[in-house]
Design a protein that fits this description.
Shape: globular
Order of helices and strands: EEEHEHEHHHEHEHEEHEHEEHEH
Domain ABC transporter: 4-229
Pfam families: ABC_tran
InterPro entries: AAA+_ATPase, ABC_transporter-like_ATP-bd, ABC_transporter_ATP-binding, P-loop_NTPase
GO molecular function, one term: ATP binding
Distance between the termini: 36 Å
Radius of gyration: 23 Å
Bound molecules: adenosine-5'-triphosphate
Strand content: 25-35%
Number of strands: 13
CATH class of the largest domain: Alpha Beta
Number of helices: 11
Keywords: ATP-binding, Nucleotide-binding, Transport
CATH architecture of the largest domain: 3-Layer(aba) Sandwich
Length: 296
């Protein structure tokens, strides 16, 4: 079922077109990533999708609802890049104040969220005194209090350590399974987009690619294996003829399709190998392939 349908969305700032006629379609329960460099138009798009700004043209439809309405706001949760909570109130006061904005709040669910995000022990602390990771967990709890059908996360992992990131995703994935919650996230990192079902690559306000992560990687960001050898002829004879290969002296660069195939090749060629490194495909590769330019 399509939850969110967006057509022809456009936003200009003066002469600058920040978002240029974009179309999006998000299925219920999906995790969708907007991947793009600084200034690509991701936040501008999120601001329109959350009803914070009104698009200059285009339509947004969330299961029959229009942004800017109370009904629409109740279906969405938003975690902004910069927090919207009150630094002088405690975590609990902030959450209670926010919960008061909704008619029906499931108190057991709120308690469960606080436990899941490990914020019960800091509930009495002023929000302004929390660490970056603690704040993020509170911000996400705030956005989830009313069990939204669609959660927006604007660059959720910026500045977070790996443990905090893993904790957050473990809870969000559980909610996705339980409530078929849909998530839209913006990110600069292909690695973060890895977990998405579908990715829109955005640059200069336009969607330059829309695909699954595995297809994006296969098309534009293959892993490159660099191997040095004493016997180039024997080594290259072991390389699958379908893998693009460049020989430079004693080193060969091989575009490898996946980790398993790479391990099989390395195992077979082991006696011939004197050194190796694997460079994983990243967002820069996608941008070079699609735009001919390095990422900004
Ligand atoms: N209020 C504004 N007034 C003028 N220009 C703006 C405004 N907001 C955004 N822009 C411009 O629109 C473009 C898109 O910005 P946006 O913040 O949407 O990008 P982004 O992809 O979210 O970038 P980042 O990853 O750095 O957050 C940029 O060129 C930005 O300078």
């Amino acid at each position: 079922m399509t939850l969110l349908k967006v057509s022809n969305l456009t936003q200009r700032y003066g002469n600058h077109v920040a978002v240029n006629h974009i179309d999006l379609s998000v299925e219920a329960g999906q995790l969708v990533a907007f991947l793009g460099p600084n200034g690509a138009g991701k936040s501008t798009t999120i601001n329109m999708l959350t009803g914070i700004t009104r698009p200059q043209s285009g339509t947004i439809d969330l299961a029959g609802l229009k942004p800017g309405t109370r009904a629409y706001r109740h279906q969405i949760g938003v975690v902004f890049q910069n927090s919207v909570l009150d630094a002088d109130l405690t975590v609990r006061q902030n959450l209670m104040w926010r919960a008061g904005m909704y008619k029906q709040i499931d108190n057991a669910f709120v308690t469960r969220l606080m436990q899941a995000f490990d914020i019960e022990t800091i509930a009495g602390q002023k929000y302004g005194s929390l660490s970056g990771g603690q704040r993020r967990r509170v911000d996400i709890t705030r956005a989830l209090l009313h069990k939204p059908r669609l959660l927006f996360l604007d660059e959720p992992s910026t500045g977070l350590d790996i443990q905090t990131r893993n904790k957050i995703w473990a809870v969000l994935n559980q909610l996705r399974v339980e409530f078929q919650m849909t998530i839209i996230l913006t990110t600069h990192y292909l690695e973060e987009a890895n977990i998405a079902d579908y990715v829109y690559v955005i640059d200069h306000g336009e969607i330059i690619a829309a695909d699954t992560v595995s297809d994006l990687k296969a098309k534009y960001a293959k892993d490159v294996l660099r191997v040095t050898t004493t016997d180039m002829a024997k080594l290259t004879a072991l390389v699958d003829p379908q893998w693009p290969t460049t020989v430079k002296g004693h080193q060969v660069e091989i575009m490898v399709p996946d980790v398993d195939a790479t391990i099989r090749f390395l195992t077979a060629a082991r006696p011939l190998i004197t050194g190796m490194e694997l460079k994983r495909g990243d967002m820069n590769d996608i941008f070079v392939a699609l735009t001919g330019k390095e990422i900004r």
